[in-house]
Amino acid sequence: xxxxxHIFTPSNLTFPKQPYPKPSSNRRFPATTFSPKLIxxxxxxxxxxxxxxxxxxxxxxxxxxxxxxxxxxxxDYDTPPSQSIISDSSxxxxxxxxxVELKENGFRSTRRTKLVCTxxxxxxxxxxxEALAVGGMNVARINMCHGTREWHRRVIERVRRLNEEKGFAxxxxxxxxxxxxxxxxxxxxxxxxxxxxxxxxFSVRAFDSHRxxxxxxxxxxxxxxxxxxxxxxxxxxxxxxxxxMEKIGPxxxxxxxxxxxxxxxxxxxxxxxxxxxRERNAMLPTISSKDWLDIDFxxxxxxxxxxxxxxxxxxxxxxxxxxxxxxxxxxxxxVIAKIESIDSxxxxxxxxxxxxxxxxxxxxxxxxxxxxxxxxxxxxxVQICRQLNKPVIVASQLLESMIEYPTPTRAEVADxxxxxxxxxxxxMLSGESAMGQYPEKALAVLRSVSxxxxxxxxxxxxxxAMELPVxxxxxxxxxxxxxxxxxxxxxxxxxxxxxxxxxxxxHMASLLSRCRPDxxxxxxxxxxxxxxxxxxxxxxxxxRLSFSDDMEGNLNKTFSLLxxxxxxxxxxxxxxxxxILQSIQVLTVP
Length: 590
Ligand SMILES: Nc1ncnc2c1ncn2[C@@H]1O[C@H](COP(=O)(O)OP(=O)(O)OP(=O)(O)O)[C@@H](O)[C@H]1O
Ligand SMILES: CC(=O)C(=O)O
Ligand SMILES: [K+]
Ligand SMILES: [Mg+2]
Hints:
Elements: E1 39-42, E2 57-60, E3 67-70, E4 92-93, H1 96-105, E5 114-118, H2 126-134, E6 139-143, H3 149-166, E7 171-175, E8 192-194, E9 199-203, E10 215-217, H4 223-226, E11 232-235, E12 240-248, E13 251-258, E14 260-262, E15 268-272, E16 275-276, H5 289-301, E17 305-308, H6 314-327, E18 334-339, H7 342-346, H8 348-354, E19 357-361, H9 362-368, H10 374-387, E20 392-395, H11 410-421, E21 426-429, H12 431-434, H13 439-460, H14 475-494, E22 498-502, H15 507-514, E23 521-525, H16 528-534, E24 540-545, H17 551-564, E25 573-578, E26 583-588
Parallel strand pairs: 1-3, 5-6, 5-21, 6-7, 7-17, 9-10, 17-18, 18-19, 19-20, 20-21, 22-23, 22-25, 23-24
Antiparallel strand pairs: 1-26, 2-3, 4-24, 8-14, 9-13, 11-12, 11-15, 12-13, 15-16, 25-26
Helix pairs in contact: 2-3, 6-8, 11-13
Bound molecules: adenosine-5'-triphosphate, pyruvic acid (PYR), potassium ion (K) and magnesium ion (MG).
The site of potassium ion (K) has 5 residues, from loops.
């Protein structure tokens, strides 16, 4: 790129000469001494990328404020699917929970960390789902390892109905089974207890209705051939352990060395001399034929996210993304790479780069690498995701003891705090919400710990600045990134109440979220599907709003709609950015 560009940042941006006060301790500008409503800095785009006119930053003072123009190459945002655009231009949609939170506690106290709940027998009813939505569930996860497609379809229907009838924007994430080795479904039993010293049979034979006592089926045909006498067999990452004693045809006799509860379809790994054995099962495809059918199901149901289990390489993600694109022109399903195998750690950056987000799936990850390596892997994945601008979910065993007990352990609270402190986009409940005794209580713990830790770290100003590399490929993308970095920095320095972002595809909102600003981000988008997808990203409060290319009009409309609902008030200080007209505007709410 030969053209030079003046990207404005707070350091090279000239504000009007008019003095304005330093942020006071409550970090709120008195509207009387500073009239930010009139400051508008725009990066307008020239239509000719090769234009010889040199880019310029113009700051003009229109009375008391200023406006700046910065020219650049044309931006290209793709138009979202027309089908999902809601034509009602007079309303704004936000979920009832956020609305109450904003009204009662103000901007600062809103939760920035998003919450994902796995839906299972304990939470599949409409009322239970509603209780989770009221409790702050942003994304409902359905795990295709369990239940029938018909069961999952009903859950999706209920979540949809909840969104329609009660104004929520709960997104749906479908998680594939993947083709690693796991046990069968225990013939319908909810669990099986293995006691110390007991002999259990792991068999590749399928059992119809009658499962012989102390026998479990294993889904991998090569199992009996690949294991050796003396191997250690770990169920669910070591929750239960066995030693292989004898092989009899398709049956493998094992002695329980670490007793515990085995759940249906629990994952099985085997170890030899302290290392994970990956014989022919290493060749199992990431996406099995059953997974492809589940993916077709997810596409036809219009789920918002598909999470792929046991990803090994970026190719499988790229392949799936083109498969989805060819089959679902109207909806845009985001693909989340689950990082839960040794192979995925080896190819981490390429996999995350190819995906729309990632999950630190600590359950299986902890079965493939030594447990003491899981925390550093988590930190690394969270950091790479933030740098590459991909949402990241920290999952598994966050509040494991709450499957049975109404209060978490102190260690669990510390674990949740750590994920919040790392500023992961989202935390996930698995068994706690799918089949535990206290799904709502577990969600409430995630909620209160998140809010508390976020507030604490904001107040202490403990967050280290993170180097955010350029992620976009076009010049226009770079401008959007710089705008977001500058806007977030300005928002922190000026102590504004909220950042507003008007975004058609959601991209600009995600770039702002990546900066992890101190104030919440109101993300306005015209489609319900983008709004749902943004619900996974840190700090974003997604609104559905029809808007035009006239930012002045958009802002006035937003202010009056939000004021009418008591969600903002006169005098609130806001910074607005948009991907319609690449710009930063500082405004006080009239
Ligand atoms: N749809 C479902 N029907 C029945 N039980 C379910 C369902 N979803 C989850 N569960 C139960 O909740 C437990 C925890 O759920 P989770 O989604 O973490 O599954 P998992 O088997 O550990 O697999 P994964 O590694 O894919 O997360 C499961 O082991 C299962 O017992
Ligand atoms: C979530 C998941 O798949 C795991 O932790 O293994
Ligand atoms: K799964
Ligand atoms: Mg897993």
